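Proteins fold reproducibly. Next comes an illustrative record:
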Amino acid sequence: MTDRPTDNGALHCGLRCLALAVLMGSACGPDDRSRTEPIDKGVRHIVTHLASVPNLVHVIEVDLGEPSVELAVVKAGNRLRDIRPLSVIVREQVAGRTVIAAINGDFFSQEGIPSGAQFSDGRIVKDGPENWYALAITADRRFFVDRVHFTGVLLDAGGGALSIDGFNRPRQTDEVILYNSFFGAATNTNQYGSEITLRIDWHQACLGDTIVAEVVYVDSARGNSPLYDSVAVVSAHGLRRDFLHGLKAGDRVRLVQQAVPFYGRLKSVIGGFPLLVKNGKNVVLRSDHAGGEFAQSNSARTAIGFSNNERKLFLVCVDGSQPNYSVGMGLSELADFLIELGCEQAINLDGGGSSTLVVGRQVANRPSEAGTERAVSNALVLYRTERPR
């Protein structure tokens, strides 16, 4: 963040000018410039420079009616605790796909754990805290923004049910936790619980699906079960261990993972904070952080917004903390800009030195830390698929 005071009048004027430039595809002042470049079918890259602020803003506009374009949520290193530069995430973890563009995702801890919820590749990566928002993408390509939380239940062949208390976090007293390979190489649990290992085909699984799994191993007194891409481990402490003791290798069970609130089958979820736009209105002033430096300071910003009515998606990256190039935006100004673009709903993603845009496989913006990419926890990757629909 920067201590530079905000010139609200000039910045508001600049935003109106910028929004018009973006929407009309032309500059609005003698020194302001805007260019629009189609980068794939149904996708445009719009770059606008406002000399008077100054600000440099990148917008990736996506026609959601184009079936060959999809948006994926990707975790750095495919591990809960990992960070990598966005260009590395694109190169290493989206191999074999034609990448159109990508932006950095959620805020994260020093260990690389995202602050909010994440669901990717059929698996829950992490649940989110009560106050954190998330962008959710359904299997039929609709988008939602809400406070999203995950629930789960394991069902045996006899109709018994075991509720799941958490995902990919340390197991506490009397808890049942589900682990998958995003957590790491093993569950890191102690011998005071019981665990079962399930063989699962995660391929194309969605939140809300009932997944049939096979019990591979039942462990009653060891803990620290190994984790692989094709398995999940259910770890129980306390009285609910008895449910696991009733299972044996070869048994068929059903696993249900769901999101609350319910929006149908969800393909991807990523966290963000705060909510910027709701039903076409700027809601930043209602945020608990509206009066703080985090919200008011001009800074590099990353955001995602969409209009389900107009079937448009917008990935936005604002360069910042570079006084003679681009100073950045406050959150309310960012929300106003997103509304001018046509967003009905939008959330803020990690900003500052994390704000990065990749077009193709090259960094397209100028990150605020001397132009050097900061390693980030997760990403939103737009790619082309020729898969029939």
User: Anything to note?
Assistant: The mean pLDDT is 90. Helices lie at 8-24, 86-93, 241-245, 293-296, 331-341.
